[in-house]
C-alpha cells in the first residue's frame, strides 16, 4: 500500500470512529434543539408579540444556561483523559464533583433569570412584550437545575463513549415536548366545561420545557444507578461523593474559560436579538427564525466536535499524541465538508424552509435576506466548534476564550452595531448589519482557534519526543 493510500485509509478509519460517537450526539442534540423549534413554530402561530417575547426571552435564558453549561461540561475532557488512562474510579469521581458544581451554579443562574432588568434595558421591549418575557423567564428558571444536571450526565457519557444512552432520553423528551407545548401554548378551548383553558403563549413553551428536562434527569439518574455499563465507575452504590476542593478547583480551572468562551459566543446572539428588537417586533421575529436555523445546523458540527474531542482526549490520556493529532485534523476536514454542503442546501431552499415556520409575509420578508449570512456563518461555526473541542481535549481553554472575545464581541457585536446604526451606507443596516459582522467575527474565530490548535499540537509532540531525564 502506498503512502497516499495508507493516509486515505487512516482518514476513512478516523471518520468512522468519529461518526460512531457523533451520530447519537447529533440526533440527541437535534431533538433538544427541536424544543425551541417547536416553541418557535407554535408561538409564531399564536401571535407576533409572543414571538418577539420568545426571541428575547430565549436569548436571555440561552446566554445564562449555556455559559453555566460550559463550566459544568469540564467534566467531559477531565473524564475522557482519565478514561483513556484506565482510571475508572477517577472517571466516576469526576461526575460526582461536577454535580456539586452544577448545583452551585444553579443559584447564580436563578439570580440572573429572575432579575433580567439589565438585559431588558438593552432590548427596550414594548410593555406588553416585557410582561410576557418575565413570565417566560420565571418558568425557565424552574427548568435550569435539571438542565444543568442533565448536562453533567451528557458530558460524562460522551467522555466514556456512551452517547446512545443520552440520545434515547433526549428523543423521549422530544416525544413529550410537542404535545405539552401544543397544549400549554395554544390551550384547549374546545374541551367541555372546566377542562377548557386558554393558551399561555410563549410561557407555555417554557413550562413544557421544565417538565421535560426534569423527566429526563430522573431517568438519567435511574440509569446511572442500574445500568451495568456504569459499574466500573462506582456509580451503582452509595450516595453522592462529598465535595472535593482540589477536584472542584480543577473543574473550575478548566470550566470557567470553557464557560466564558461559550458565553461569549452565545451572547453574540443575545445582543443581536436585544439590539435588533429596537427595529420592532417584525425585525426581531425574522431574526429569531434565522437564529433558530443556525442553531439547528450547528448541531452537526457540535456533534462532530464532541466526538472528536472525546476521542482526542482519550488518546491524550493514553499518551498517543500522533493519533490524537490525526483525529483532530480528520475531524476538522469532515466538519468543514459537511458544513459547506449543508449551508449551500439551506440557502438554495431558503424560501420553503421559512414557510415551514410561518406564513406571515412580513416575517418571511424580514428573515429572507439573512439566510445568505446563515450559510456562510455555518462554515465558520463548524471550524470553531471542531478546533475548540480539540483544544478542550488538551485542557487548553484560556487562549480560546481570548480569541472568542476579540472576534465575536469585538468584530461581531461592535462591528454589527456600527453597521446597523452608525454606518454612512445603508445596504447592511438593521438586522443584516449584525449578521454580516457576526459572520466575519466567527470566521476570524475559526482561523484564530485553528492557529492555537496547531501550536498546541506542535508543543505536545515536542514535549513527548524530548528525552526523559
From TrEMBL:
Q: Which residues form a coiled coil?
A: none
Highest taxon in the source lineage: Bacteria
What residue intervals traverse the membrane?
Answer: 20-38, 58-78, 98-116, 136-153, 165-185, 205-224, 251-277, 289-313, 334-356, 362-380, 401-421, 433-452
- For the keyword Oxidoreductase, the answer is no
Q: Which Pfam families match?
A: MatE
Keywords (A to Z) from UniProt? Membrane, Transmembrane, Transmembrane helix, Transport
State the name under which the record lists this protein.
MATE family efflux transporter
Amino acid at each position: 500500500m502506498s503512502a497516499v493510500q495508507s493516509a486515505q485509509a487512516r482518514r476513512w478509519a478516523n471518520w468512522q470512529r468519529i461518526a460512531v460517537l457523533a451520530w447519537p450526539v447529533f440526533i440527541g442534540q437535534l431533538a433538544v434543539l427541536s424544543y425551541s423549534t417547536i416553541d418557535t413554530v407554535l408561538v409564531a402561530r399564536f401571535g407576533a408579540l409572543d414571538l418577539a417575547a420568545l426571541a428575547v426571552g430565549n436569548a436571555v435564558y440561552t446566554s445564562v444556561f449555556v455559559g453555566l453549561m460550559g463550566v459544568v461540561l469540564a467534566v467531559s475532557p477531565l473524564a475522557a483523559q482519565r478514561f483513556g488512562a484506565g482510571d475508572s474510579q477517577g472517571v466516576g469521581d469526576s461526575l460526582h464533583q461536577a454535580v456539586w458544581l452544577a448545583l452551585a451554579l444553579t443559584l447564580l443562574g436563578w439570580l440572573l433569570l429572575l432579575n433580567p432588568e439589565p438585559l431588558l434595558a438593552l432590548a427596550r421591549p414594548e410593555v406588553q412584550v416585557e410582561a410576557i418575557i418575565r413570565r417566560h423567564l420565571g418558568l425557565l428558571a424552574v427548568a435550569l437545575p435539571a438542565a444543568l444536571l442533565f448536562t453533567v450526565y451528557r458530558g460524562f457519557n460522551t467522555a466514556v463513549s456512551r452517547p446512545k444512552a443520552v440520545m434515547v432520553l433526549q428523543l423521549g423528551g422530544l416525544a413529550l415536548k410537542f404535545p405539552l407545548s401544543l397544549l400549554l401554548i395554544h390551550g384547549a378551548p374546545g374541551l367541555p366545561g372546566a377542562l377548557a383553558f386558554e393558551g399561555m403563549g410563549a410561557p407555555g413553551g417554557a413550562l413544557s420545557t421544565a417538565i421535560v428536562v426534569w423527566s429526563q434527569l430522573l431517568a438519567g439518574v435511574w440509569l446511572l444507578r442500574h445500568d451495568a455499563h456504569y459499574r466500573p465507575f462506582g456509580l451503582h452504590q452509595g450516595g453522592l461523593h462529598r465535595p472535593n476542593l482540589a477536584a472542584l478547583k480543577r473543574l473550575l480551572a478548566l470550566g470557567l474559560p470553557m464557560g466564558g468562551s461559550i458565553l461569549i459566543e452565545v451572547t453574540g446572539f443575545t445582543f443581536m436579538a436585544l439590539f435588533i428588537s429596537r427595529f420592532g417586533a417584525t425585525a426581531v421575529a425574522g431574526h429569531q427564525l434565522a437564529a433558530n436555523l443556525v442553531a439547528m445546523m450547528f448541531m452537526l458540527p457540535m456533534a462532530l466536535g464532541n466526538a472528536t474531542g472525546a476521542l482526542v482526549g482519550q488518546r491524550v490520556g493514553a499518551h498517543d499524541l500522533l493519533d490524537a493529532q490525526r483525529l483532530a485534523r480528520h475531524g476538522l476536514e469532515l466538519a468543514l465538508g459537511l458544513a459547506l454542503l449543508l449551508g449551500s442546501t439551506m440557502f438554495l431552499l431558503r424560501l420553503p424552509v421559512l414557510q415551514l415556520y410561518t406564513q406571515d409575509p412580513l416575517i418571511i420578508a424580514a428573515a429572507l435576506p439573512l439566510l445568505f449570512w446563515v450559510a456562510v456563518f455555518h462554515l465558520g461555526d463548524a471550524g470553531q466548534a471542531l478546533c475548540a473541542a480539540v483544544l478542550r481535549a488538551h485542557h487548553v481553554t484560556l487562549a480560546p476564550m481570548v480569541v472568542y472575545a476579540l472576534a465575536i464581541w469585538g468584530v461581531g457585536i461592535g462591528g454589527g452595531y456600527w453597521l446597523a446604526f452608525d454606518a454612512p451606507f445603508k445596504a447592511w443596516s438593521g438586522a443584516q448589519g449584525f449578521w454580516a459582522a457576526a459572520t466575519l467575527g466567527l470566521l476570524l474565530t475559526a482561523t484564530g482557534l485553528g492557529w492555537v490548535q496547531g501550536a498546541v499540537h506542535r508543543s505536545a509532540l515536542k514535549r513527548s519526543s524530548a528525552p526523559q531525564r
